[in-house]
Structures are given as structure tokens and as C-alpha cells.
Design goal:
mainly alpha, Zincin-like, three-stranded mixed sheet, 3 strands, globular
């Protein structure tokens, strides 16, 4: 499937996920940019991430911006080719994987560790 179509489906899935968040979390979630990329960049791979990584949160978690001298702005990266492959090239499975991956990475923004994410069904 063309990247532009995957990006449109992914953006729709992220928007739907944001609308389903509790009202107090929505403004924070909408403030974190989501970038749709084909695959991880060389610097991400150089940091030790696998080539088939589905998504990544970078930047300062919510509430920790003042804890560092030069806070990096938060952002979520979704790797659409990896998500598409993981979903078995099925559109509905792709939507669900985008939703889960987005919520997982958003959880990192809120400062949740892997155990917190698992407890919330976002592993």
C-alpha cells in the first residue's frame, strides 16, 4: 500500500484514539506531535533499536521539562512500514496496531514505564 494511504489511515486511527482518552488527558495528548515515517532513521538504529520497531517516544516526559537544562520537545514517531508488516498487510489490523502503538508511546510521554504500560494493556 502507498505510504500516503498508510499515513492517512494512521492519522485517522490516532485521532480516534485521542478522542477516546479521558477528557483530562486529551489536551496533553494533542500537544504531542505525531510523525509518520516509513522506517526508523539511521540514528534510531544506531541507538540500538531494531529495524522493525513500531514506534518511539522521544523528548521529555510530561512534567519533567523543568528537570533538565535543555528539554527536548516531546514527539511520537510511528513507523508505518513496520506497522503494516506487523499487521500482516490487513487494514483493520493496521488500524489497531497504530492505535496500540500510539497509546503505548503516549504512555511513555506520561511517564509510564513498561510495567505500567503492561498493566494498562498497552504492551
Amino acid at each position: 500500500m502507498k505510504f500516503s494511504r498508510l499515513a492517512a489511515i494512521a492519522a485517522d486511527a490516532v485521532g480516534a484514539a485521542q478522542r477516546q482518552l479521558p477528557p483530562e488527558l486529551r489536551p496533553h495528548a494533542r500537544g504531542v506531535p505525531v510523525h509518520y515515517e516509513r522506517a526508523p532513521a539511521a540514528d534510531v538504529l544506531a541507538d540500538g533499536f531494531e529495524p522493525d520497531i513500531l514506534g518511539l517516544f522521544t523528548g521529555c516526559p510530561h512534567g519533567e521539562e523543568l528537570a533538565v537544562d535543555s528539554p527536548a520537545p516531546p514527539q511520537i514517531l510511528l513507523y508505518l512500514e513496520s506497522l503494516w508488516d506487523f499487521a500482516g498487510e490487513d487494514v483493520e489490523a493496521f488500524r489497531e496496531e497504530v492505535r496500540l502503538t500510539y497509546l503505548h508511546e503516549l504512555g511513555h510521554y506520561f511517564g509510564w514505564d513498561e510495567d505500567d504500560l503492561t498493566a494498562r494493556g498497552l504492551d
